[in-house]
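User: Here's a chain of 87 residues. Predict its fold as tokens.
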Amino acid sequence: MLPNAGGLVTTPDGAKVTFVMEGRTVFGKNAKGESVGGQNIVIWFEADDERYKWLNDAMCVVEGVIAGLGSIRFRVFECMNELIAES
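Assistant: Prediction complete.
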């Protein structure tokens, strides 16, 4: 499966942030030995609000797992381009 989605989120302080994400669903066993689907996703954000403009330069990866009917749990990590600092 190839998850592909986008949308708009409103932060608790009222800023609007759009996102686009693409990835792959992977299947494995959880700690109980049950078969579960997880997600490996790349996500990009776009924000006009000054407080969130740093997201415009961020590329993030997401690990996720389907946590129940209609529910998913994500962890989002920002990837840093370390070659910029080295040049």
